[in-house]
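Appendix C reproduces, verbatim, an entry submitted by the partner laboratory led by Prof. M.T., so that reviewers can inspect both the input and the predicted structure.
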Amino acid sequence: MTEAPAAGFVGRLRGGVLLFGEGFAFLRAHPRLWGLAWVPVLFALLAVGGAATAFWLHLTEVHAFFVALLPSVAPGAWWTWLWIGPAKAVLFLAGWLGVLGSFAVTLVAALLTANLASAPFLDSLSERVEGIATGRDPSGESGQRVLAGALSSFVSELGRVAFLGGIWLGLTLVGFLVPGAHLLTAPLLVAITVAFLPLDYAGFALDRRALSFADRRRWLAAHRPTMLGFGGLAFAACLVPGLNLVLLPTLVTAGTLLVVRTEPGRAID
């Protein structure tokens, strides 16, 4: 099963966005996959619920942290309010934008943690999806695959999450230590996460092809508009209450379909 080349950047971007709906439709069309799909949903419920609760309990401290990073402006003569008033409004919005960005990253981190915990089930789901999509359905081996591949899939997912976590930590430290750097590191965190998500959700299918990290980066670059659409929608969906709880199986299904259709190593995008 291969993907016909889409015409133009917009067409390929749209194809990436539509992958989410295709993944959901695929799961709906194959009820026998639901048993594997519900386990990641349960882990997501626990991870997102815990992360959102913790963030809410520490909202005041998080806001104070971002406010402390912003410059302080004070009026002198009465006419200085002509620029200090708008400046204070901008700084107020900047503080809450920092809170919103950190909340978004927190939710994505919670879902990646759920992804890690449910890696063996998602790996088995990905294999089943690929089997059905290619006509080589391994349904009779799914139970054995969950047990035999549990450690391998967990270690692979741990490596992916640790890689992104290292980037997050580095950029966060730069934003904290360098005055004003957070104005750049915050959007950069979002951009890197958007680029990483397709690699993560397609990771199980890519693991079965034994692709190196360099090969995965080349695959990502060869299909950049599609990856941007897929990763951008995945990131946005992480922020929607309720929807973010059923994301994992849908996104892994979509990522698997993407790999099947593009077959890494064949630059058709």
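Residues 13-57+99-262 form one domain. Additional entries are available on request from the coordinating office.
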